[in-house]
Amino acid sequence: MSPKNNKDTAFDNIRNQVLDSIDSFIFTKDLSGKYTYANQAVLDLFDKKLDEVVGQSDEVFFDLKLSVQLQKNDQKVMALGIRVDSEETNYIKVLNETRTYRSVKKPLFDEQGNITGMCGISTDITAEKILQAQVAEQKNLLDTILNNINAHVYMKDSDRTFLYVNSQVAELFGDEAENIIGKKDTEVLPKEIADHFYQSDSVVFKTQERQVIEETATDDEGNIHHYISTKIPFLSPDKRSALIGFSTEVTELFLLKEEFKKLATIDPLTKLFNRRYFTEQADKEFIRAQRYKLSMTLISIDIDHFKSINDNYGHPAGDKVLVAVSKQLQDSLRQTDILARIGGEEFSILLPETSAEDAMVFAERIRAEQEKLRITGEWQGEITLSVSIGISGFQVDDEAFDVLFSRADKALYQAKKSGRNKVSYL
After folding, report:
1. Does residue 275 sit in the same domain as residue 419?
2. Which of 28, 47, 240, 421 could join 236 via S-S bond, C-beta 3.0 to 4.6 A?
3. Res 1: pLDDT
């Protein structure tokens, strides 16, 4: 073989300088697995000079029991003559540590096409793999938290595309999270429901301010679900305007609140309004009648000899009488009338925009219908009853509803005093 000329030597020097300037690890090996070349990155890794590496095999530099993939890839390249792209985890003896590389290995051929060895380039991705593991661990931790909190968590951009949903949202929508992410809300939900939720979304995008709202949704069975939603503006990594939503179902709390509200206004036995609610509504109607000079009449009703019913038949029978009287009164009302159990065996009916004459006719009908009641139960015979009724109409010099209420009460007392089962007006 003729000696290299100066031009070839200069080219080799430039090539070696280029290869030595590359941070990746570049090397060649012969068929026996011994190094025939290594760039400076490899030499620095092994802490060796070139002549200390060339002619040596991997067992000098690696713990091959802990670097199994390295040998498998080399053998595959040189036995099959194919390129191998792979990740390798290698234990370097001089560093006393394990590192991970992304390696590309290719066979080398002579002029006759015979395999003479292999060349390889490896890039250290240890830090990248550690970072990936940390990110994966953090993602797993975050997913575990978000999928187990009692809230529906999601991200949407201003184009109404879901960027993230937790398992609670996926379950609510009846699909897998991966099938929802990347789709618009109108592709996942019926349009009217999607548009309903987007009303508050659009406020967030417009104001770029946190919003806390109450939202409702109806399921396939017609049940209404109530949510408290917090929506926060967010700039996604690709600079898209987005929001993060946290929706907590409060249906049970809402129903409990409604029940408390009902208990605050409804008499538990008769299911009529209680005195408190009646007074509140009556005060409003009084102001309206006073302002617009409207007629308004109040009817006070008391069950005659109710104490004797309790004494003769027992309190359960008395309760049943109260329920029966309440039902009859309720069936007699117009939509605008307000009926309440004021206390004990006493009831009141407020008749807005009703004259005293019409109220008298109405009250007399109530008296007659109550007299026809026949109440049976776990006692002998039937319970019959009568009611006394007092009526009073709104007068222009009345200063408050209490004045009207007091006058109707006096009329009721007058009906009782005159023999009961009567209607009296003051």
Report:
1. yes
2. 240
3. 46
What is the residue range of 203's domain? Answer: 132-253
User: With contact defined as beta carbons under 8 Å apart, do 46 and 53 qualify?
Assistant: yes
Statement to judge: residues 220 and 339 lie in one domain: no
For the four alpha carbons of 325, 328, 331 and 337, in that order, the dihedral sign comes to: negative
Q: Check which CATH number belongs to the domain holding 329 and give it.
A: 3.30.70.270
DSSP SS3 for 240: coil
Any idea what DSSP says for residue 60? G
Q: Which residue has the tokens 């990110």?
A: 135
The answer to which of 55-69, 257-271, 390-404 has the lowest mean pLDDT is: 257-271
Q: Return the SS3 of 257.
A: helix
Task: Work out the average pLDDT over 221-225.
Answer: 81
SS3 content of the chain, % helix, strand, coil (to 5): 45, 30, 25
- How far does Cα 185 stand from its chain's mean position? 15
E strands, 22-79, are 25-30, 35-38
Alpha carbons 167 and 175: distance in angstroms, whole number = 9
Domain match, 395 and 278 both: yes
CATH number at residue 110: 3.30.450.20
End-of-domain residue from the set 103, 124, 145: 124
